[in-house]
């Protein structure tokens, strides 16, 4: 029954690592009055320029109902703007404002600091990131809809 020891639980190791990383981000994100989910939405928009609410949800592996309030708060902060798609007004498109674009360089430095905090080499960091991506894809494929 050693498989039930905490140190043998992959889920606990991932949970602990995630918690540690989020704690590392928090002080810097607080300076920008951002939550981690808001930061992730900004990262997605810096990469893809504009996305629908549904596309953001898919990229972040969340439900659209979870993303909508996050985007609304970013809009109140004047970091994003929402528009309706012309040919289908049910689709809400999110894009960055100038203020949202301007945060990119500053938050890039935060990400670099957190990456350094891991103590991993670039190769180990990239390998772990790839392994976790594979793990996520494999486990997600086994989850019933």
TrEMBL record:
Gene3D superfamilies: Winged helix-like DNA-binding domain superfamily/Winged helix DNA-binding domain (1.10.10.10)
InterPro entries according to UniProt: HTH_MarR-typ, MarR/SlyA-like, Transc_reg_Sar_Rot_HTH, WH-like_DNA-bd_sf, WH_DNA-bd_sf
One of the Pfam families matching this protein, by short name: Staph_reg_Sar_Rot
Main location: cytoplasm
Domain HTH marR-type per the UniProt entry, residue ranges: 7-137
Assigned keywords, A-Z: Cytoplasm, DNA-binding, Transcription, Transcription regulation
Subcellular localization: Cytoplasm
GO biological process: response to stress
Single Gene Ontology MF annotation: DNA binding
Source species, domain of life: Bacteria
Cellular component GO terms, alphabetical: cytoplasm
Record carries keyword Hydrolase: no
PROSITE patterns attached to this UniProt entry: HTH_MARR_2 (PS50995)
PANTHER family: ORGANIC HYDROPEROXIDE RESISTANCE TRANSCRIPTIONAL REGULATOR (PTHR33164:SF5), TRANSCRIPTIONAL REGULATOR, MARR FAMILY (PTHR33164)
Protein name in the entry: MarR family transcriptional regulator
Organism expressing this protein natively: Methylophilus medardicus
């Amino acid at each position: 029954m050693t498989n039930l020891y905490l140190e043998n639980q992959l889920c606990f190791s991932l949970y602990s690592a995630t918690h540690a990383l989020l704690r590392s981000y928090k002080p810097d994100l607080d300076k920008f009055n951002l939550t981690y989910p808001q930061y992730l939405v900004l990262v997605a928009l810096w990469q893809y320029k504009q996305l629908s609410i549904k596309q953001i949800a898919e990229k972040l592996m969340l439900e659209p109902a979870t993303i909508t309030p996050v985007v609304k708060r970013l809009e109140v902060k004047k970091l994003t703007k929402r528009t309706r798609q012309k040919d289908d007004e049910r689709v809400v498109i999110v894009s960055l404002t100038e203020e949202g674009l301007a945060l990119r360089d500053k938050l890039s430095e935060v990400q670099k600091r957190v990456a350094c905090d891991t103590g991993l080499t670039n190769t180990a960091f990239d390998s772990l990131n790839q392994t976790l991506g594979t793990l996520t894809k494999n486990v997600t494929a086994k989850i019933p809809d």
